[in-house]
From TrEMBL, chains A, B:
Signal peptide range in chain numbering: none
Protein name: Antibiotic biosynthesis monooxygenase
InterPro entries: ABM_dom (IPR007138), Dimeric_a/b-barrel (IPR011008), Jasmonate_Hydroxylase-like (IPR052936)
Organism: Salinicola endophyticus
Gene3D superfamilies: 3.30.70.100
Highest taxon, organism lineage: Bacteria
Protein keywords: Monooxygenase, Oxidoreductase
ABM domain sequence ranges: 10-80
Any GO molecular function: monooxygenase activity
Amino acid sequence: MLADTPEPPYYAVIFTSLMRDDSAGYAAMADKMLTLAQDQPGFLGVESAREEIGITVSYWADLEAIRAWKRDIDHREAQRLGRERWYAAYRTRIARVERDYGFDH
Amino acid sequence: MLADTPEPPYYAVIFTSLMRDDSAGYAAMADKMLTLAQDQPGFLGVESAREEIGITVSYWADLEAIRAWKRDIDHREAQRLGRERWYAAYRTRIARVERDYGFDH
């Protein structure tokens, strides 16, 4: 469930959003985009949770992989619908992961 | 609700976790740590959501601010309790935010 990413450095796309009240069609599109993202070159993993806000962090090998996914034709259509229908606000942050640590029982 | 961060560069701490079944005491400690973090030098904002996994992304001016918060005595006690009592697994990723964009209706 936690993304099993390789040794840094790699990149994270931190996507946070607030939904509008009517989210018809959103869940199906989110599932489709998740499936598509996982097939992209350079995709390393994803972590997602939604309460009052939604947070999706996807991990990528390099900036070129992020750029290619942003330009993907189906993803572009999803981004357009997101702005027009589903999101009240969102923010995308592109970040270089420099260090990680953790534990597992 | 979405963090109102300044122009990049700045830093993100991406903390993702799986809870154990018994989370007694966790919510109160999480609230306390959130309040404390917001008073730290260099703190820029935080975004948090939990479903199957928990994701908390905190934003910081620089690495020294992150190090100082990691060493904070109350925070160290919270980290210890997290490992001993609350988390089945967690991962902390330190990342440099290089670019961000978004929109607001």
